[in-house]
């Protein structure tokens, strides 16, 4: 057994031994690049645990060393959990005695959480802002309670675009006051996207086994796209938002960001389901399949699936022949896997449903945010701020510290100017619901589609507005080495179908490769 303070040399030697073990044992995760511990899947790690080739303590030590080595450059992690090694020891102990639930799933697997997901421990929960530093939450977020029950190790908090990118329009993606500017590990000069930037950066760069992000509009799908990871944006209410620093309960959702579809599904299985602290999970419970989501990891999952392909809207790349070439190749792969690509859809009707000069989403979101953030702040056990008004005052007072003058907080100011859900806000919500019914839902139902295809995260706004799920999978790299993905979006509760499609596509293409840290 390794000592409690493994040196980098010991970790390097251990990595080599694990590589040899996994290669000789016929790992279930065959990829198109040489296997290493840095790309190990949850299934690989569980197999290593089972064969007594790896302990959770050794695994946590490895990730802590990678964070120490890479995070000064990437800034994907805000803080690590001082109790992570203790949790690892407890996971090892339970595995040794074969305690119930200790022999699979996420047991003993380290996970990083976006820093807007509350943990009742020695770590902070701040949404990346100095305003909440030192605040104390009343309890773990609902998803954290489920992760702990599954035996996952809470490794630390991932960075994010501050306040989940809902502070000012000029705040760069991946920047927050607590950790600075996050960097894309594939191309350090490229936008990592946000707001779940740190979750994507960290899992892409192998600073954690798996990560958790949140999305209101594009915040899982976009960073997953830019950092070559798999992101699942669940149906709103499928996963609890209780204890998550909010933007709007109509659109907020919590989902996994991982290196493979299977890993993301392991995480989704752990966090989906009922939480009485979030009423939306009661209604969405009907969408959770008996037996969980792992059963939908089918290599032949494309067979018979009807996929909407709207070339002229989403796949028109006049000045980017590389994208055209790559996606046409993927369309052939989808067809070869048995999918039916439906192109003769009435797209004009779909687009007309969303044609409006009024930004209804922003109108509703501003009022929702003020109500939701005030409620969250008031529930904190200890906090230096208790309202949105306090947050604005804090930012004004420490403008040099948080770059307020440069980045601004106009979204905060606009939200503070609202006065509850009035006639204007109600009309905005009704119009968004109408758009979703007459747009995305009609497109899917009239054409009997299982999913709509989208390059990058182009469809995120449609999915966000209607509370629909989406799964994005790595699809390629541009001439600068920056990744891009292919997104599959569906109706509420269609996660089983989307997982089948995404997994089969991933297994047929094997696009993902480790980052190059290119300048």
From TrEMBL:
Keywords: Signal
Transmembrane intervals: none
Domain (Amidase): residue spans on this chain: 59-461
Signal peptide boundaries: 1-29
Keyword Signal attached: yes
InterPro entries: Amidase_dom, AS_sf
Protein name: Amidase C869.01
Origin organism lineage: Eukaryota, Viridiplantae, Streptophyta, Embryophyta, Tracheophyta
